[in-house]
Amino acid sequence: MHKTLKELSELIGGKVIGDQDVVIKGISGIKEAKKGEITFIANRKYQCLVEKTDASAVIVSPDITNSCKPLIQIENPSLAFAKIVSLIGPEPIKFKPGIHPTAVIGKNVELGEGVSIQPFVIIEDNAQIGDGTILCAGVYVGHYTKIGSDCLIYPYVSIRERTEIGNRVTIHGGTVIGGDGFGFATVRGVHQKIPQIGTVLIEDGVEIGSNVTIDRARFDKTHIKKGVKIDNLVQIAHNVTIGKNSIIVAQVGISGSTTIGENVIIAGQAGIIGHVTVGNNAVIAGKAGVTKDIPSNMVVSGFPARERRSNMKAQAYLQRQPRLYEKIASLEKRIKELEKRLK
User: Fold this and answer.
1) Is 93 inside a domain boundary?
2) Spatial separation of the C-alpha atoms in residues 96 and 119, rounded to whole Å
3) Catalytic annotation, pick one of 100, 172, 238, 275
4) Percent of the chain with pLDDT over 70
5) pLDDT confidence bin for 1, thresholds 50/70/90
């Protein structure tokens, strides 16, 4: 699909700066873009890339006004670019409704209208699948599990028994939902397994990346609330609760019975011990180690995690250690010389 810059700006509600008749044939990242493509920057600190890119036009925020290239100004360039991707990007893959003959469907399974059950899917007895949901190749759905409407479950996802998933949930390949929580009691040197008889509840609008593990609760439920977005390779242990619209970035580990508030951001490779609470709107920086409760609206970093400015100050002191060591050594030397003179 080819559109002029003027047409695109009208579709997304932006303002053109420069030649509005430039024809856009494709989309790409700012470093990879070529002539005829449109790209974007979401942060002013990357403005230097606007002059370097080969793209024919760039979507920018309103505070960027001067460029050698045509611009579309808009409040949220990232969201605007996503809309353009849906307009001129590749056609999305579509799955036809129906049940592939290699799929295995158990007894008393309820399938909604327009479901798509792809090759080698297994749906155990008494499961429920909502209208328009797509189960890609090799998906496993356990006994008594409920999956809502318009969900997209990518290949080789395992959803264990008695799990409940809401509407419009996307789960990417290799993820396991409802595996046993890591619970053992050591008796005379032998680790005895503690039964994990709870479940997992995933609410509407959640997206879960590839190779994520969300363990079932020991009792009650592990709870992922509406709008949560989880990146790849995240481990969520038993009885964890994650509040609405929180973002969990790749390789995060959350230990059992931890409560995460609403609109929390947990950056990559952060770790959180069990039985702590993270307040609403908190931000946990990458590789932080959370060992105690985090209040709402606080930004923390480091190990152990503490308020960001305090941690940065401590890190600055650490960087000065070599100079401090040299200074102390010099002072010790001078003291010894003075002591000799006094004697």
Assistant:
1) no
2) 12
3) 238
4) 99
5) low
